[in-house]
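Minutes, structural biology subgroup

Action item carried over from last meeting: produce the structure token record for Flavin-nucleotide-binding protein (Orbilia ellipsospora). EB confirmed the sequence was re-checked against the source entry. Recorded below for completeness.
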Amino acid sequence: MSDLSYPKSKINKVNRLGDRGVYDCKTVHEIITGSQVVHVSFNPGSLEDYPVILPMIGKLGSFENPSADLSEPLDLYLHGYVSSRIMNVARQSAKDEPQKPMKVCVCATKVDGLVLSLTPNSHSMNYRSAVVFGTVELVTELEEKLYAMRLITNGVLPGRYENTRVPPDGAEMQSTQILRVTIDHASAKIRTGEPGDYEKDLKREELLDKTWTGIIPLYQAFGEPQPSSYNRVKEVPEYINKYVKETGDVEKEYAETAITKQSAGKA
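Output recorded by EB:
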């Protein structure tokens, strides 16, 4: 069975250095899942308003098919305070034009290295980015809302939801709004490898002798967990230590491996 992919269209097609474009669900979803923060862009609804983009926590899942993995179709769940701007716009949109749901564009980016070349124009970064375009629905059913809150909490740190006071109480549920984004279009773009200098510069011996070129790996790493002022648990739980170590190791390994994987095109 071949991997599922998002159909390439004028909306999600990668034009600049198109050979770096990736459309399979697994790659797109892995980038979003591995990002602590996603940036959500939406139209606030007034001609006098500027376009809005917000940093938010967004996690992928399927309420209808909870066992679905990253290679399958998934929804993107966003959460925020019930009266925040994006939630107000979503509610108003659903009320005014239920047949034309609110649309968003969501972006996630992971930088894996600084790529230093012979000339400023050839400098680049090794990176993985994903952009999704989708339609928004308010989550109103209690069961799905609890599913999303657990998904988001454990998406930040696996196992955390079950190791806290749950379920959220009535006031917490009322103050929190969940949005479900049905992904209509998506794509990823990935750069790996060494610098891509021009042949004319590679022939300049004096330039090669004075200019250091190479890659500085860049990856997310977690520091030592620090207890709060009122913490009474003497030892850091194993699920926290495991996540801190394993996530840092995986990020470092990818950033270092990306140096030897050459991607298409210059820069």
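Discussion: The first strand starts at residue 21 and ends at 22.
Next step: EB to file the record with the rest of the batch.
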